[in-house]
């Protein structure tokens, strides 16, 4: 997708000049796959440019709160929200999730996050990109602890992670009383192993559904990928 200063979707534009993490396939798939249902309140943890908040606004009638630890990123997200069709339904806040979870009195129906996941690995030199990609500032256990505080008892949260981190995350989640309810394994090509896993969790044990998504095959985007992301990408 490149690192252009903006990315145009069908119903909104994302300016991404200052955000460490630009618009990427992972977030688009997560925002398109996450079930909004009848959620009245949605929390976007690590909102970045505001992409997931905007996608949730397009797909629901919920009130959405987006939070991020980086001040410049929040300003950019606020600008993207102000330029959208839904400025009255999205509220961006500059605050760490740990602090937000301790202070926020209300509960959310849905939490969505493309969380930082690198751990004990070499870090890029750019501080903002380091914070966005590495979980020093928001370890998995602190994210899960926060979800226990901000979610309604019947609420759900959804995340996307590299395939090699999903097992650790799932095991930790079970220790906090969360159960997987939906899984999507993503392969870029059909002859390659899946590299991303999207997971939805609830605080109630139900039968977990599992699906696969292939992004490209024989030089073309697959029909499944087109259908999933079609409401957003101009090309589809």
Folded structure, characterized:
This protein is an alpha/beta fold and 236 residues long. The chain has a single domain, classed as 3-Layer(aba) Sandwich (Rossmann fold), CATH 3.40.50. 32% of the residues lie in helices and 28% in strands. It is built from eight helices and twelve strands. The strands form three sheets. It has an eight-stranded mixed sheet with strand order 5-4-3-6-7-9-8-10. Strand 11 and strand 12 form a beta hairpin. The two termini are 15 Å apart. About 4% of the residues have low confidence.
How are the SSEs placed, and which strands pair?
Elements: E1 6-8, E2 13-15, H1 25-33, E3 41-45, H2 51-59, E4 63-68, H3 71-82, E5 90-94, H4 97-103, E6 108-113, H5 127-133, H6 140-150, E7 151-162, H7 163-175, E8 179-187, E9 196-202, E10 209-214, E11 216-217, E12 220-221, H8 223-229
Parallel strand pairs: 3-4, 3-6, 4-5, 6-7, 8-10
Antiparallel strand pairs: 1-2, 7-9, 8-9, 11-12
């Amino acid at each position: 997708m490149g690192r252009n200063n903006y990315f145009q979707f069908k119903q909104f534009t994302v300016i991404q000049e200052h955000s460490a993490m630009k618009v990427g396939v992972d977030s688009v798939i997560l925002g398109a796959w996450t079930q909004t249902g009848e959620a009245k309140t949605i929390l976007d943890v690590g909102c970045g440019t505001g992409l997931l908040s905007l996608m949730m606004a397009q797909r629901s009638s919920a009130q959405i709160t987006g939070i991020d630890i980086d001040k410049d990123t929040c300003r950019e997200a606020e600008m993207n929200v102000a330029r959208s069709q839904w400025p009255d339904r999205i509220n961006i806040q500059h605050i760490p999730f740990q602090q937000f979870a301790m202070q926020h009195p209300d509960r959310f129906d849905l939490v969505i996050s493309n969380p930082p996941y690198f751990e004990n690995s070499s870090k890029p030199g750019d501080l903002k990109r380091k914070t966005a990609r590495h979980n020093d500032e928001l370890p998995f256990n602190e994210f899960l602890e926060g979800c226990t505080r901000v979610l309604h008892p019947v609420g759900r949260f959804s995340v996307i992670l590299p395939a090699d981190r999903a097992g650790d995350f799932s095991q930790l989640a079970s220790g906090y009383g969360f159960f997987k309810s939906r899984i999507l394994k993503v392969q870029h090509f059909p002859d390659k192993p899946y590299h991303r896993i999207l997971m939805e969790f609830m605080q109630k044990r139900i039968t977990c559904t599992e699906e696969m998504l292939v992004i490209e095959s024989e030089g073309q985007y697959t029909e499944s990928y087109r259908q999933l992301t079609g409401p957003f990408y101009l090309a589809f």
